[in-house]
C-alpha cells in the first residue's frame, strides 16, 4: 500500500480525510484504496468493500454507505453498477470542488439510479450516455414527489458538474439535455412548501432600471478608491499593528490607528460616507462590491451563474472584424458539452468594464489576504475565493481548481445579497411593480407569492438578469431568437424560446436612444463576430475544408473557380449583417444552418461529419473527432468483448474510421497528439 493512498481520520471529523491523489486516481481506484481508518490508523473500509463504514467522520457516528443492498439480484451487471456507484460517490466526495460532509453526501438517490439502470439492463454509464434510456428516465422521474424531484436534480447537477471538470468521469449526463427535460417536468408541479415559481421571475421594468443605476453608483464609487483600498491591505500585511482600533493604538507606540491610516491614504471621507470604521465592516463592503460586480456581468451578458464564476481575470477584451470592433467577455461554458469547460465568449457593451475593474480590484485584495497568485490573469479567476482555505481541506487540493492561481468563489452568499439590497432602497417592491407582473403573466398569482411583499426588497437572483435580457430584448424587437440562443450558449433554440416566453406582454421600456443603441449594437456585433470567425476559418484559411458545405467550397477552390462567398469578402460580410448567412460554432467545426439543428444528438456529436451544412477542417475538426473517438474507446473498455454495448461502440468507431479513410484523413488523425 502506497502511503498516499491511506486516509487518516479522527473521531468527530465532519469531512472525509484528504487523500492526496490526482483526479484520475479517484476515477479508476485500486480495490485496496483505503476509505476510512480509526483513530489509531487501523483500516475500517476499503474501496472493494460493498459497505463503507465512515461513521468515524460523522459527528453523530451514524453514516454508512451501503453499495450492495439496493437490489437482491445477483448478476454480472449488478457488479458493474455497484462499482460505478462507488466511483460516483468517491467523485462526489473528492472531485466536486468543495469539502463534503459524509452525512450530507447521501447515496439514497444514487441507489435509485442504480435500480433504474438495472431495470433497463444497462450500466449507469449507458443510462446517462445513451439517449434511448431517456424516456424511461423521465417516466420514472415524473412519478416522484416534488420534494424528491428537487433532491434528485441536485444529485444530477452534482454529477454533471464533476463531469464538466473531469473529462474521464462518464457516470453523468454528457450535456444538459437530460437535465433540461427533468427541470421542465419538475417546474410543472406546484411547490407550495418552498413557494418556488414555475419559471424564473421577470424583474419589473422599474426595478430593472433602478438596479442598473444602483449597481453603477456602487461600482463607480469603489473604482475611484480601489487603488487606495488595495494599499490599505498591502500596508496591513507589512505591519501587524496597522489600522487598529483607536483604543488598541494607544497600547503600543508602533501601532497605527484606523483613523490615522485612512486619513493618510485619503480614504477618511469615503469610509465615513460608507460608514466603515473597522476591518470587519470593510470586508462586508468589499463583499457588497463583489456581488455588485457579479450582477453587473450578468446584466450585460446574460450568462449563467456558474459561467460567471469561471470567468478569468483577463475576460474583458476587444475584437476587430473589418471595420467593426466590439467588446467581449472570454470565458467557459459547460452546457453545450461536458468535455471540461469549453472556451467561448459573450458579446457585451463597454459599460461592463466598470464591473470587471471592480472585480479585479477585489480579486487583488483576495490574493493579498489569502495568499493567492494573481500574476497571470489568464490563470486567475475574476471572482476568486475570498476566504483563505486551511491546508487540510479538500478545496485546498489544487486538482479541484479550474485556475492555477486561486479557487473560484461560489455563488453570492445571503449576507452579501442582503447588504447589497440595503444599499439600493429603490429596489423595494411597490404596487406598480405587482400590477406590471400581473399584466405580464395574468395566470400567475403574484399577490400570494410570499417572496413579493410590497415594501420589501425584490428577491433578486442572478438568473433573473438572464431572463430579463431575453424578455426585454425580445420585446424591443431588436434581438432575434437565434441571437439569444447564441448569447445564452444553448445548443437548441427551444430553451431560448422558453426564456423569451410571454415577452409580448412585457413593458417595452427599452425605448431610450441609449437602450436601443445597446441592443442594436449587441445584435450587430454578434453578426460581426460570426463573420469574423467565417473569415478566419473559411475565407482566409489555408487548411483543407471538408464536411457538406466545406467540401463544396474546397472543390470549387481545387477547380480554380472559388465561390463568390470566398472571393467577394465585402458581399459576404453584408450577407452576414443582413442575416442571410450564419456561421455558428458546432461540436466539430462550423455550421451554416440558418435554422436550428435537428440532427445533433446529445449523446453523439458525429452527425456533423455527414451534414450538408457543416464546414470542417483537417486540423481542429480532426482533433475534436479524435477526442470523441477516444471517449468511445474509454466507454467500450467498461464492457466485455461479448457485451452488446461493446459491439455497438465498436461499430460506431469502425464507421467513423471508414468515413475518415474515404476522405484520406484517418492516418493524419491517428498521428495527432
Estimate the strand proportion. 5-15%
Write out the strand line-up for the largest beta sheet, numbering strands in chain order: 8-11-10-9
Distance between the termini: 34 Å
Which class do the helix and strand fractions yield? alpha+beta
Poorly predicted regions are 1-14, 192-197, 336-340, 391-395, 477-486, 488-515
- Number of DSSP-assigned strands: 11
Radius of gyration: 27 Å
Residues in helices, as a percent range: 40-55%
Task: Please tell me what the overall shape is.
Answer: globular
Biggest sheet character: 4 strands, antiparallel
Helical segment count: 26
Word description of this protein:
- It is a single chain.
- By secondary structure, this protein is an alpha+beta fold.
- Among the domains are: 185 residues, no CATH class; 97 residues, no CATH class; 150 residues, no CATH class.
- Helix content is 48%, strand content 7%.
- It is built from 26 helices and eleven strands.
- The strands form four sheets. Strands 8-11-10-9 form a four-stranded antiparallel beta sheet. Strands 5-6-7 form a three-stranded antiparallel beta sheet.
- A hairpin with an 8-residue loop joins strand 6 and strand 7.
- Helix 12 packs antiparallel against helix 14 and helix 18 crosses helix 19.
- The longest helix has 34 residues.
- It is globular.
- The two termini are 34 Å apart.
- The N terminus is likely disordered.
